[in-house]
Amino acid sequence: MRFYVTTPIYYVNGEPHHGHAYTTIAADVLARYHRQKGDDVFFLTGTDEHGTKIAQAAEERGLTPQQHVDEMAPRYRELAAALGASNDFFIRTTDSEHEAFVQAFVEKLKAAGDIEKRTYGGLYCTACEGFWYERDLAPDGTCPDHGIKPVWLEEENYYFLLSKYQDRLAAFFRANPGWVKPKSRYNEALSFIEQGLDDISISRSSITWGVPVPWDEGQVIYVWVDALINYLSALTYARPGEDLTARYWPAFHFLAKDILKFHAVIWPALLMSAGYELPDGELIHGYLLVGGEKMSKTRGNVLDPFAVIAEVGAEPLRYYLMREVTLGQDGDVSVEGLYARYNNELANELGNLVSRTASMIGKYREGGIPQAGPEDEALSEVAAAGAAMTRAAGARYDAAEVTAALETIWEFVRRLNRLVEEEAPWKLAKDQAQAGRLDAVLRALAAGLRLTSLSLYPVIPSAAVEVLRRLGQAHADTDLRLEGAVWDGLEAAAVAIGPPLFPRLERGA
Which residue among 34, 68, 98, 143 is the active-site one? Predict the structure, then answer.
């Protein structure tokens, strides 16, 4: 099986924020899970570097647009690395290979008879890089996504005949009710189509910072058309001398709800016109909120992921965002909430369990995981719970329900902690007649932690590998494969005792 997952490419008019981190982390979780399944995975992220906002941001800084994007794009690449993202390629829309592909793509639209030159006027939001109908604005006349008033823009441009694809798009949606998730976003996209589609401008004559229209050098291709095509263009040059399109396309797109229309309506129509297969699906996530308001650079309420990573580390941030905010829904985030999740769950419940298990095996069995011992109904129940957790978490990951997967895993973590309290190994160790029982309990804890680590790997990969290492189970990447995630897969090995996996944190410490 192949799995090609994409994030939207991030607009480099400002510094990265937690919203970018959230999207990248979620896509990385899906990529890592599919690699664990043995799928052939390609994970793409990158930066969107053309358009009005970029030109304006560069001018404000006294730079050329190219100088500006050359300074800003590395920050987004650095964020992916800091988050531990396993992306296979990082695309920039100023890459010459991408620009050439975009020009060839729009030539296909023209050859299909889907391009016309017209004059158009409308309310244009610079932050969205898109037009708005007055009826869709907020009551005060502002863009509902960015809180700023659109300006009237009128110019002669090239138009894509989106209206021509209305019936085909509606038929496709009705035939594929799970193509956009969650259901509310599917309904929103289908409603937009059924209300009637207007043709869209796919070029701009008022700016010069963009990919030139190949048959008219006086115009540049609309930034959103340029950006959407990256999902295809990247496959043609991600690996020098190799075109990966046939191997990986179509993609699974992961994106935020404010760009639903572009991805779920305009993009499939462009693909239909150019003769490409439509994406496998699209998962639309909600907004990260701060005090109930959408996080955005325009609103000035962004959180700096680099600062949080420097303070607590990347994996606590990965865990917190995936645990706290259900994909598809809006959710409030805060540094205080991160600390609470970290200390209560990662430090107290998982970290302490790892330390106690390794310490007890070290103390009572000279560091060797016991390989035998009587299993009664209670321990058989724990084994069954571990197997059920692995299956259930996998099903949740398959459905891109990461928060639900973590809840399933954490129920089992708490079951293992109860096993420690119920069996009290320190008491069993004092009674030689209970030696076999102690062996069985210690082995159950190690086996349970191994399954927990394999299921947690997509979200906190480094910590999961460290737990496996301390259990003597991590020898190669193949040890992470889910095909080996069975209760009896625990190998005879010596445990390693180390510092706390997640030391407790105090604000300002």
Answer: 143
